[in-house]
Structure formats: C-alpha cells, structure tokens
Specification:
3 helices; three-stranded antiparallel beta sheet; 164 residues
C-alpha cells in the first residue's frame, strides 16, 4: 500500500528520532534496520515529490497552451468582428435609407437614433468637459434633448442599419 506524502514525512521524523535516541545510548552508532527504513522512506518521498513536480510541469504546460489558444481565438474573434463590421458598413452604403429587405434568415431595416456631434470643442461650456478636455456627450445630449442649446454641440439624427 502506498503511503501519503505526509505519512512518509511523519514516519521519517519518527525513525530519525529513534535513530537519535539509539545513537545517544550506543555511542553514536546507527542501527542498520532503521537506516534502511529511513533510506526506503526517503526514496518513496523523493519519488512522490518528483511525480508531483512532473504533474506541476504538465499543468503549467497545459495552462500555457490554453493561454496561447485563448490569444489565438481572441485574434480570430477580433478579425471576424471587424469583417462583420466592414460588411455591415458596405451593406449600409448599398441599401437605400429606409429600404427594408428580408428573407427567411435575414432582415434588414433602419432605426432612427440621435447622437451628439461636437462642432467646436472650444465653445463647449466647462461643465460638460472632462478633465482630459473631452466633452461629455451623454450630459450634452440630455440638455439638448430638453431643448436647451449648448454652444459648440448639435443633435444629429442618424439612420442605423439593423440586421436580424
């Protein structure tokens, strides 16, 4: 029966204590049977520790492979998303604004949206500027939608292509 590492360590400590006690009583001599038991336990302990080391190296290698695959898949994901965005923009350029087109798998439609376009950053009031001197478009949009003019900003209506 194979011992657990903690059991081997405990037995080694017990044998070591027995060797020390024997050596005190017998003028420094070490009994062969205890020395052989200690050597056998050390071999078992070393083999277990080396096996754990191989397991650790195996896990670390697998983790590296997973990390490399993750990076490869992230690059692939980015490429696919970019390609889809380019195709979406191409379709938006070639489909008439407001035109609907569909079949059993795909449906194109248009949705209105409004966004803030900064026409002159120097005219934007300080209350709407971030520390980095960029305008807070969300805050400006709330004010513009409520009917208050903000110098240097305007609401722009856009048509966004919807693909379902």
């Amino acid at each position: 029966m194979s011992l657990h590492l903690y059991e081997i360590t405990a037995q080694m400590a017990a044998i070591d204590a027995a060797i020390d006690a024997y050596a005190v009583e017998h003028e420094g001599e070490i009994p062969d049977n205890l020395d052989a038991q200690l050597a056998a336990l050390q071999l078992q302990r070393n083999e277990k520790l080396l096996s754990i080391g191989r397991w650790i190296k195996n896990l670390e290698g697998e983790a590296e492979a997973v990390a490399a695959e993750k990076e490869r898949l992230a690059a692939r994901q980015s490429a696919l998303e970019n390609k889809a965005a380019r195709l979406r923009a191409w379709v938006a350029q070639n489909l008439f604004v407001g035109e609907k087109l569909s079949d059993a798998n795909v449906a194109y439609s248009w949705r209105k949206s409004t966004s803030v376009e900064i026409t002159d950053i120097n005219q934007i009031p300080a209350a709407y500027l971030h520390v980095e001197e960029t305008a807070s478009k969300a805050d400006i949009k709330k004010v513009l939608v409520s009917g208050i003019d903000v110098p240097g900003a305007a609401l722009v209506e856009k048509m966004n292509l919807q693909l379902k």
